[in-house]
Amino acid sequence: xxxxxxxxxxxxxxxxxxxxxxxxxxxxxxxxxxxxxxxxxxxxxxxxxxxxxxxxxxxxxxxxxxxxxxxxxxxxxxxxxxxxxxxxxxxxxxxxxxxxxxxxxxxxxxxxxxxxxxxxxxxxxxxxxxxxxxxxxxxxxxxxxxxxxxxxxxxxxxxxxxxxxxxxxxxxxxxxxxxxxxxxxxxxxxxxxxxxxxxxxxxxxxxxxxxxxxxxxxxxxxxxxxxxxxxxxxxxxxxxxxxxxxxxxxxxxxxxxxxxxxxxxxxxxxxxxxxxxxxxxxxxxxxxxxxxxxxxxxxxxxxxxxxxxxxxxxxxxxxxxxxxxxxxxxxxxxxxxxxxxxxxxx
Length: 346
What we know:
By secondary structure, the protein is α/β, with parallel strands linked by helices. Helices cover about 40% and strands about 15% of the residues. Helix 1 (about 1-10) packs across helix 14 (about 330-345) and helix 5 (about 135-150) crosses helix 10 (about 240-250). The radius of gyration is 22 Å and the shape is globular. The relative contact order is 0.15.
Protein backbone atom coordinates (compact mmCIF):
# COMPACT_ATOMS: atom_id res chain seq x y z
CA UNK A 1 0.00 0.00 0.00
CA UNK A 2 2.88 2.39 0.59
CA UNK A 3 3.01 3.99 -2.86
CA UNK A 4 -0.72 4.73 -2.76
CA UNK A 5 -0.67 6.01 0.81
CA UNK A 6 2.21 8.41 0.21
CA UNK A 7 0.67 9.68 -3.01
CA UNK A 8 -2.62 10.44 -1.24
CA UNK A 9 -0.82 12.05 1.69
CA UNK A 10 1.19 14.26 -0.67
CA UNK A 11 -1.66 15.28 -2.96
CA UNK A 12 -4.88 15.24 -1.00
CA UNK A 13 -6.26 15.86 2.46
CA UNK A 14 -7.77 12.42 2.93
CA UNK A 15 -8.27 10.36 6.09
CA UNK A 16 -6.94 6.82 5.80
CA UNK A 17 -8.00 4.15 8.29
CA UNK A 18 -5.56 1.24 8.11
CA UNK A 19 -6.52 -2.11 9.60
CA UNK A 20 -3.90 -4.83 10.11
CA UNK A 21 -3.64 -8.15 11.94
CA UNK A 22 0.16 -7.72 12.19
CA UNK A 23 1.24 -6.08 15.48
CA UNK A 24 4.64 -5.34 13.91
CA UNK A 25 3.25 -3.71 10.78
CA UNK A 26 5.52 -0.86 9.63
CA UNK A 27 2.49 1.41 9.50
CA UNK A 28 2.85 1.89 13.27
CA UNK A 29 6.24 3.55 12.73
CA UNK A 30 4.64 6.22 10.53
CA UNK A 31 3.64 9.53 12.08
CA UNK A 32 1.48 10.90 9.26
CA UNK A 33 -1.51 12.51 10.95
CA UNK A 34 -3.92 11.49 8.17
CA UNK A 35 -3.31 7.78 8.86
CA UNK A 36 -5.29 6.12 11.64
CA UNK A 37 -3.87 2.65 12.26
CA UNK A 38 -5.61 -0.23 14.03
CA UNK A 39 -4.29 -3.58 15.12
CA UNK A 40 -7.07 -6.18 15.29
CA UNK A 41 -5.96 -9.22 17.24
CA UNK A 42 -8.54 -11.82 16.20
CA UNK A 43 -11.54 -12.62 14.01
CA UNK A 44 -13.72 -12.03 17.05
CA UNK A 45 -13.18 -8.31 16.46
CA UNK A 46 -12.34 -8.33 12.75
CA UNK A 47 -15.66 -9.84 11.62
CA UNK A 48 -17.97 -7.27 13.27
CA UNK A 49 -15.62 -4.44 12.29
CA UNK A 50 -16.07 -5.20 8.59
CA UNK A 51 -19.78 -5.90 8.92
CA UNK A 52 -20.25 -2.43 10.49
CA UNK A 53 -17.80 -0.66 8.19
CA UNK A 54 -18.76 2.94 7.39
CA UNK A 55 -16.44 4.35 4.74
CA UNK A 56 -16.58 5.59 1.16
CA UNK A 57 -14.04 3.10 -0.14
CA UNK A 58 -12.45 -0.08 1.21
CA UNK A 59 -9.15 -1.13 -0.38
CA UNK A 60 -8.01 -4.67 0.41
CA UNK A 61 -5.40 -7.26 -0.56
CA UNK A 62 -7.57 -10.13 0.71
CA UNK A 63 -9.34 -12.28 -1.90
CA UNK A 64 -12.58 -14.20 -1.21
CA UNK A 65 -14.49 -11.19 0.09
CA UNK A 66 -18.02 -12.26 1.16
CA UNK A 67 -17.10 -15.93 0.65
CA UNK A 68 -15.96 -16.70 4.18
CA UNK A 69 -15.82 -14.72 7.44
CA UNK A 70 -15.04 -11.26 6.04
CA UNK A 71 -18.21 -9.76 4.54
CA UNK A 72 -19.22 -6.55 2.84
CA UNK A 73 -20.66 -3.92 5.16
CA UNK A 74 -24.21 -4.32 6.47
CA UNK A 75 -24.28 -0.63 7.35
CA UNK A 76 -23.66 0.86 3.91
CA UNK A 77 -24.33 -0.60 0.48
CA UNK A 78 -22.51 2.15 -1.44
CA UNK A 79 -18.96 1.36 -0.27
CA UNK A 80 -16.66 0.74 -3.22
CA UNK A 81 -14.59 -2.37 -2.52
CA UNK A 82 -11.25 -2.30 -4.34
CA UNK A 83 -8.89 -5.25 -4.67
CA UNK A 84 -5.13 -4.68 -4.75
CA UNK A 85 -2.98 -7.63 -5.79
CA UNK A 86 0.07 -8.73 -3.81
CA UNK A 87 1.78 -10.49 -6.71
CA UNK A 88 1.66 -10.53 -10.50
CA UNK A 89 0.85 -14.23 -10.72
CA UNK A 90 -2.33 -15.55 -12.32
CA UNK A 91 -5.58 -14.69 -10.53
CA UNK A 92 -7.35 -17.51 -12.36
CA UNK A 93 -4.95 -20.20 -11.16
CA UNK A 94 -3.59 -18.86 -7.86
CA UNK A 95 -6.87 -17.66 -6.31
CA UNK A 96 -9.98 -19.70 -5.57
CA UNK A 97 -12.81 -19.77 -8.08
CA UNK A 98 -14.85 -16.58 -7.70
CA UNK A 99 -12.30 -15.03 -5.34
CA UNK A 100 -12.86 -11.53 -6.73
CA UNK A 101 -16.58 -11.73 -7.54
CA UNK A 102 -17.68 -9.46 -4.68
CA UNK A 103 -15.25 -6.67 -5.42
CA UNK A 104 -16.42 -3.61 -7.35
CA UNK A 105 -13.00 -2.61 -8.66
CA UNK A 106 -9.68 -4.35 -9.29
CA UNK A 107 -6.33 -2.65 -9.81
CA UNK A 108 -4.85 -4.90 -12.51
CA UNK A 109 -1.05 -5.19 -12.59
CA UNK A 110 -0.74 -6.90 -15.98
CA UNK A 111 -2.46 -7.34 -19.31
CA UNK A 112 -2.89 -10.98 -18.34
CA UNK A 113 -4.78 -10.21 -15.12
CA UNK A 114 -7.18 -7.91 -16.95
CA UNK A 115 -7.91 -10.54 -19.60
CA UNK A 116 -8.36 -13.30 -17.02
CA UNK A 117 -10.93 -11.33 -15.04
CA UNK A 118 -13.01 -10.40 -18.09
CA UNK A 119 -12.94 -13.98 -19.38
CA UNK A 120 -13.98 -15.39 -15.99
CA UNK A 121 -16.85 -12.88 -15.77
CA UNK A 122 -18.07 -14.08 -19.16
CA UNK A 123 -17.57 -17.75 -18.32
CA UNK A 124 -19.52 -17.61 -15.05
CA UNK A 125 -21.89 -14.78 -16.00
CA UNK A 126 -20.88 -12.65 -13.03
CA UNK A 127 -21.14 -8.90 -12.60
CA UNK A 128 -18.58 -6.88 -14.56
CA UNK A 129 -16.07 -5.14 -12.32
CA UNK A 130 -14.32 -1.85 -12.94
CA UNK A 131 -10.81 -2.82 -14.05
CA UNK A 132 -8.03 -0.27 -13.78
CA UNK A 133 -4.86 -0.75 -15.83
CA UNK A 134 -2.89 0.14 -12.76
CA UNK A 135 0.47 -1.65 -12.69
CA UNK A 136 2.22 -3.04 -9.63
CA UNK A 137 3.48 -0.67 -6.96
CA UNK A 138 5.87 -3.14 -5.31
CA UNK A 139 7.82 -3.77 -8.51
CA UNK A 140 7.97 -0.02 -9.19
CA UNK A 141 9.37 0.53 -5.70
CA UNK A 142 11.89 -2.28 -6.12
CA UNK A 143 13.05 -1.00 -9.51
CA UNK A 144 13.51 2.52 -8.14
CA UNK A 145 15.56 1.27 -5.18
CA UNK A 146 17.61 -1.05 -7.37
CA UNK A 147 18.45 1.64 -9.90
CA UNK A 148 19.61 3.94 -7.08
CA UNK A 149 21.75 1.25 -5.46
CA UNK A 150 25.43 0.72 -5.99
CA UNK A 151 26.06 -2.22 -8.34
CA UNK A 152 29.10 -4.45 -8.25
CA UNK A 153 30.14 -7.38 -10.40
CA UNK A 154 30.10 -10.67 -8.57
CA UNK A 155 33.27 -12.68 -9.02
CA UNK A 156 32.49 -15.53 -8.87
CA UNK A 157 28.85 -15.18 -9.97
CA UNK A 158 26.29 -15.39 -7.17
CA UNK A 159 23.42 -17.88 -7.52
CA UNK A 160 20.44 -17.58 -5.16
CA UNK A 161 17.99 -20.41 -4.49
CA UNK A 162 14.69 -19.09 -3.10
CA UNK A 163 11.97 -21.78 -2.99
CA UNK A 164 8.29 -21.14 -2.46
CA UNK A 165 6.30 -22.15 0.61
CA UNK A 166 3.95 -24.80 -0.78
CA UNK A 167 3.81 -28.61 -0.82
CA UNK A 168 6.50 -30.36 -2.88
CA UNK A 169 8.62 -27.23 -3.31
CA UNK A 170 12.34 -27.42 -4.09
CA UNK A 171 13.24 -28.16 -0.47
CA UNK A 172 10.73 -31.01 -0.28
CA UNK A 173 11.44 -32.55 -3.66
CA UNK A 174 14.98 -32.05 -4.93
CA UNK A 175 17.10 -29.72 -2.79
CA UNK A 176 20.05 -32.06 -2.29
CA UNK A 177 20.13 -33.17 -5.91
CA UNK A 178 20.19 -29.51 -6.97
CA UNK A 179 22.86 -28.54 -4.44
CA UNK A 180 25.00 -31.54 -5.38
CA UNK A 181 25.07 -30.30 -8.99
CA UNK A 182 25.85 -26.72 -7.97
CA UNK A 183 28.63 -27.86 -5.63
CA UNK A 184 30.58 -28.90 -8.73
CA UNK A 185 30.90 -25.25 -9.82
CA UNK A 186 32.93 -22.27 -8.64
CA UNK A 187 29.81 -20.13 -8.19
CA UNK A 188 28.80 -18.66 -4.83
CA UNK A 189 25.60 -20.53 -3.97
CA UNK A 190 23.12 -19.23 -1.40
CA UNK A 191 20.11 -21.28 -0.36
CA UNK A 192 17.62 -18.93 1.30
CA UNK A 193 14.52 -20.97 2.21
CA UNK A 194 11.16 -19.47 2.99
CA UNK A 195 11.03 -18.45 6.69
CA UNK A 196 8.05 -20.75 7.26
CA UNK A 197 10.10 -23.73 6.08
CA UNK A 198 12.81 -22.91 8.58
CA UNK A 199 10.24 -22.44 11.33
CA UNK A 200 8.54 -25.78 10.75
CA UNK A 201 11.53 -27.94 9.71
CA UNK A 202 14.66 -26.54 11.42
CA UNK A 203 16.27 -29.98 11.56
CA UNK A 204 16.21 -30.19 7.76
CA UNK A 205 18.36 -27.10 7.45
CA UNK A 206 20.71 -28.21 10.19
CA UNK A 207 21.38 -31.32 8.09
CA UNK A 208 22.00 -29.22 4.99
CA UNK A 209 24.34 -26.93 6.96
CA UNK A 210 26.41 -29.93 8.01
CA UNK A 211 26.44 -31.61 4.60
CA UNK A 212 27.60 -28.56 2.66
CA UNK A 213 29.83 -26.97 5.29
CA UNK A 214 33.16 -26.03 3.71
CA UNK A 215 31.77 -25.99 0.16
CA UNK A 216 30.68 -23.11 -2.08
CA UNK A 217 27.14 -23.42 -0.66
CA UNK A 218 25.73 -21.29 2.15
CA UNK A 219 22.44 -22.32 3.76
CA UNK A 220 21.09 -18.98 4.97
CA UNK A 221 18.52 -19.23 7.75
CA UNK A 222 19.28 -16.00 9.60
CA UNK A 223 16.81 -13.59 8.03
CA UNK A 224 18.12 -10.60 9.98
CA UNK A 225 21.12 -10.61 7.65
CA UNK A 226 21.21 -8.78 4.34
CA UNK A 227 18.77 -10.18 1.79
CA UNK A 228 20.89 -11.14 -1.26
CA UNK A 229 17.98 -11.39 -3.73
CA UNK A 230 18.81 -8.30 -5.78
CA UNK A 231 22.55 -8.99 -5.67
CA UNK A 232 22.29 -12.37 -7.40
CA UNK A 233 23.28 -13.04 -11.01
CA UNK A 234 20.74 -15.86 -11.31
CA UNK A 235 17.72 -16.81 -9.23
CA UNK A 236 16.57 -20.41 -8.88
CA UNK A 237 13.02 -20.95 -7.67
CA UNK A 238 9.93 -23.06 -8.32
CA UNK A 239 6.59 -21.20 -8.33
CA UNK A 240 7.31 -18.21 -6.14
CA UNK A 241 6.32 -14.72 -7.33
CA UNK A 242 9.80 -13.66 -6.30
CA UNK A 243 10.72 -14.77 -9.83
CA UNK A 244 8.87 -11.82 -11.39
CA UNK A 245 10.10 -9.37 -8.77
CA UNK A 246 13.72 -10.46 -9.28
CA UNK A 247 13.63 -10.60 -13.08
CA UNK A 248 11.69 -7.39 -13.62
CA UNK A 249 13.84 -5.48 -11.12
CA UNK A 250 17.34 -6.68 -12.01
CA UNK A 251 16.62 -7.71 -15.63
CA UNK A 252 18.47 -10.97 -14.86
CA UNK A 253 17.18 -14.47 -15.67
CA UNK A 254 15.46 -17.07 -13.53
CA UNK A 255 15.95 -20.82 -13.54
CA UNK A 256 12.62 -22.46 -12.70
CA UNK A 257 12.35 -25.98 -11.32
CA UNK A 258 9.03 -27.53 -12.37
CA UNK A 259 7.96 -28.94 -9.03
CA UNK A 260 4.20 -29.66 -8.76
CA UNK A 261 2.11 -26.51 -9.20
CA UNK A 262 -0.10 -25.15 -6.47
CA UNK A 263 -3.45 -24.73 -8.21
CA UNK A 264 -6.13 -23.02 -6.14
CA UNK A 265 -8.72 -23.10 -8.93
CA UNK A 266 -8.81 -26.36 -10.93
CA UNK A 267 -11.00 -24.63 -13.54
CA UNK A 268 -8.33 -22.08 -14.49
CA UNK A 269 -7.86 -23.65 -17.91
CA UNK A 270 -11.48 -23.03 -18.93
CA UNK A 271 -10.53 -19.53 -20.06
CA UNK A 272 -8.40 -18.55 -23.04
CA UNK A 273 -5.69 -16.61 -21.22
CA UNK A 274 -2.98 -18.96 -20.00
CA UNK A 275 -1.49 -18.21 -16.56
CA UNK A 276 1.47 -15.84 -16.62
CA UNK A 277 3.13 -18.27 -14.18
CA UNK A 278 3.33 -20.72 -17.10
CA UNK A 279 3.73 -18.51 -20.16
CA UNK A 280 6.75 -16.54 -18.92
CA UNK A 281 8.84 -19.37 -17.46
CA UNK A 282 10.81 -19.87 -20.67
CA UNK A 283 10.78 -16.15 -21.53
CA UNK A 284 12.39 -14.56 -18.47
CA UNK A 285 14.55 -17.64 -17.99
CA UNK A 286 14.26 -21.38 -18.45
CA UNK A 287 12.33 -24.18 -16.77
CA UNK A 288 13.73 -27.63 -15.95
CA UNK A 289 11.98 -30.67 -14.54
CA UNK A 290 13.38 -32.24 -11.35
CA UNK A 291 14.77 -35.15 -13.39
CA UNK A 292 16.75 -32.68 -15.56
CA UNK A 293 18.91 -31.26 -12.81
CA UNK A 294 22.06 -32.50 -14.54
CA UNK A 295 21.46 -29.58 -16.96
CA UNK A 296 21.44 -26.91 -14.25
CA UNK A 297 25.07 -25.87 -14.52
CA UNK A 298 24.89 -25.61 -18.29
CA UNK A 299 21.79 -23.43 -18.13
CA UNK A 300 23.38 -21.09 -15.58
CA UNK A 301 26.51 -20.81 -17.72
CA UNK A 302 24.31 -19.89 -20.71
CA UNK A 303 22.46 -17.30 -18.62
CA UNK A 304 25.68 -15.60 -17.58
CA UNK A 305 27.18 -15.68 -21.08
CA UNK A 306 24.03 -14.12 -22.57
CA UNK A 307 23.08 -11.68 -19.82
CA UNK A 308 22.68 -8.72 -22.23
CA UNK A 309 20.22 -10.63 -24.40
CA UNK A 310 18.22 -11.67 -21.32
CA UNK A 311 18.27 -8.08 -20.08
CA UNK A 312 16.64 -6.88 -23.30
CA UNK A 313 14.08 -9.71 -23.38
CA UNK A 314 13.08 -9.19 -19.74
CA UNK A 315 12.86 -5.40 -20.15
CA UNK A 316 10.66 -5.80 -23.23
CA UNK A 317 8.46 -8.33 -21.40
CA UNK A 318 8.08 -6.02 -18.42
CA UNK A 319 6.97 -3.11 -20.59
CA UNK A 320 4.63 -5.25 -22.70
CA UNK A 321 2.90 -7.16 -19.89
CA UNK A 322 2.96 -4.87 -16.82
CA UNK A 323 0.88 -1.70 -16.89
CA UNK A 324 2.31 1.77 -16.18
CA UNK A 325 5.82 0.77 -15.13
CA UNK A 326 7.15 3.48 -12.83
CA UNK A 327 3.78 5.24 -12.61
CA UNK A 328 1.52 2.80 -10.75
CA UNK A 329 1.27 4.86 -7.54
CA UNK A 330 0.03 7.81 -9.59
CA UNK A 331 -2.59 5.66 -11.33
CA UNK A 332 -3.81 4.17 -8.04
CA UNK A 333 -3.87 7.54 -6.29
CA UNK A 334 -5.62 9.45 -9.06
CA UNK A 335 -8.35 6.84 -9.27
CA UNK A 336 -9.01 6.96 -5.52
CA UNK A 337 -9.09 10.77 -5.47
CA UNK A 338 -11.39 10.94 -8.50
CA UNK A 339 -13.91 8.48 -7.06
CA UNK A 340 -13.91 9.98 -3.56
CA UNK A 341 -14.28 13.49 -4.96
CA UNK A 342 -17.29 12.36 -7.00
CA UNK A 343 -18.93 10.90 -3.88
CA UNK A 344 -18.24 14.06 -1.92
CA UNK A 345 -20.00 16.25 -4.45
CA UNK A 346 -23.06 14.05 -5.01
